[in-house]
Design goal:
The chain has 238 residues and is α+β, with helices and mostly antiparallel strands. The chain contains ten helices and eight strands. It has helices spanning 8-20, 27-34, 38-50, 66-75, 77-95, 137-144, 148-155, 162-171, 208-211, 215-237, and strands at residues 54-56, 62-64, 98-105, 108-115, 130-132, 174-177, 184-192, 198-207. A six-stranded antiparallel sheet has the order 5-4-3-8-7-6. A two-stranded antiparallel ribbon has the order 1-2. α6 crosses α8. It is elongated, with a radius of gyration of 21 Å. It comes from Streptomyces chengmaiensis.
Length: 238
């Protein structure tokens, strides 16, 4: 079968990515697996590394890069958003607080779905809002399971510490008390894709007066349950 698309450089790049599907490869390994000339294989691998589609392991071998996982996660976003509406509405009704769904995009997080509290004082985060990755319980969730190098970079200037994120990983949820915005508390839990990678964070947020200074005690289980429902929907879609 002819796998040529007629665009030579793309065909060769696809050869490199396919060769890495089975695991790490040295430059010599890439040459052997793809049949490309050594300078061509090297040039393409380095160019793909620039776009984070290829990375290096501790031994300097080429491996598939994090951008591919991010694109795969985005491909599941339609299913995620289709399921998010009723799940967030239920979470809002159970907790009595505004509920949000966040995804990471580069060094920021975006609110991609929300269910607002119907009355009284609320913490409104409109869909499409871009917020920092340096503060807030959903930022903690989206950061906690990152690869070590990205985690280290992300902690620079953050309102939370590596120790705090270790606690998040251990208990499976995060809380914030006035971290992103004075007077606001929140609780978040991870949504996982079919590969178990964290692809989003589900949150409830509201004034500290209602959520108290221990919001996790009140709402962690409801948020975890909502995140589990969304994770299950992604697994069924895969």
């Amino acid at each position: 079968m002819d796998n040529s698309s007629g665009v030579g450089v793309l065909d060769k790049a696809a050869l490199v990515l396919s060769a890495l599907e089975s695991g790490p490869a040295t430059l010599a390994g890439l040459v052997g697996a793809t049949g490309l000339a050594r300078p061509t294989a090297h040039r393409l691998a380095v160019a793909l590394e620039h776009h984070r589609m290829v990375a290096r392991d501790m031994q300097g071998r080429f491996i598939l890069g994090p951008r591919l996982s991010e694109l795969a996660a985005a491909a599941g976003e339609d299913r995620l958003l289709a399921t998010a509406g009723p799940v967030l509405t239920h979470l809002r009704d159970v907790t009595g607080e505004s509920a949000q769904l966040y995804r990471r995009q580069g060094d920021m997080r975006i609110c991609v779905a929300a269910a607002e509290r119907l009355s009284g004082l609320r913490d409104t985060v409109p869909v499409g809002s871009t917020l920092t990755m340096k503060a807030g319980s959903s930022a903690q969730i989206l950061m906690a399971w990152e690869e070590p190098e990205r985690l280290h970079r992300g902690l620079q200037g953050a309102r939370f510490t590596a120790t705090a994120l270790s606690g998040v990983r251990r208990r499976g949820w995060a809380q914030s008390i006035g971290e992103r915005e004075p007077g606001v508390a929140s609780v978040s839990a991870p949504v996982r894709g079919p590969s178990n990678r964290v692809v989003a964070a589900v949150s409830v947020s509201g004034p500290i007066e209602r959520l108290t200074r221990h919001p996790g005690r009140m709402h962690a289980q409801a948020v975890i349950d909502a995140a589990a429902r969304l994770s299950e929907a992604l697994r069924r879609a895969s």
